[in-house]
Amino acid sequence: MTTATQNRPLIMVTNDDGVLSLGLQQLADALAELGEVVIVAPDRERSAAGHSMTLDKPVRADRIRSNCFAVDGTPTDCVNLGVHGLLPRQPDLLVSGINKGSNLADDITYSGTVAAAMEAMLMQVPALAVSLDLVGLVDVPDFSYACRYARHFSQQILLNGLPSDTFLNMNIPQGCPKGVRLTRQGKRVYDNKIEVKRDPRGRDYYWLGGNQLGFVRQTECDCGAIADGYVSVTPLHLDLTNYQSVKQLSNWDLCLL
Known about the structure:
By secondary structure, the protein is an alpha/beta fold. It has one domain: Stationary-phase Survival Protein Sure Homolog, Chain: A (3-Layer(aba) Sandwich), CATH 3.40.1210. It is 26% helix and 26% strand. The protein is built from seven helices and 13 strands. Strands 3-4-2-1-5-6-7-13-8 form a nine-stranded mixed β-sheet, sandwiched between helices. It has a two-stranded antiparallel ribbon with strand order 9-12. The protein starts with a helix and ends in an 8-residue tail after the last helix.
């Protein structure tokens, strides 16, 4: 890496759709205007991997071209390997995406896209997760608006930083957004249906996940912003404590006789 390159911000890009994902490639191209971009992404789709990490086997990375690595692990593995092994120094920014499909409300607990940004935050790297909302089957999603907003917010993060223990989860609606809303995490409603099918040998198998039914309409929530045609930007952190429950639980008899 030359001195001129070292003076530019170092931006790591990852995702959970795989290193060959169109959204990842277009995101990397858009961010190249802001700094030196290095892709460290799973070698195949790892959707819904959550914040999982590979601990029971080695993790391998193959350089498939200049500044692009394919990792046989999860998005969280990619962040760890990139920050601690593959990149020449600590990145100035990590951007995860662009995911094919939104990551809103309770979805973020499953999302590998969001988990990658969360892992970066734990390593003191400013991070942004980017997802494109898709309604129905779309063969070739239009990532152009998502790229524009990802580049803009990446630039803002590089200029202004982020609050401590905070990363951003951004979702972009299909088509031209009406604007941007700062939002809070919403609440999904699922039917939790499991489809049971039978293979040619007569054995049952199951499709998990259920059908998405909608969301609870709450003030300034991420789902509502997307439904209204706005970009949703939600500041997130890792503290899962339910502070409203602490007072109630403090009335319990917590002593073990």
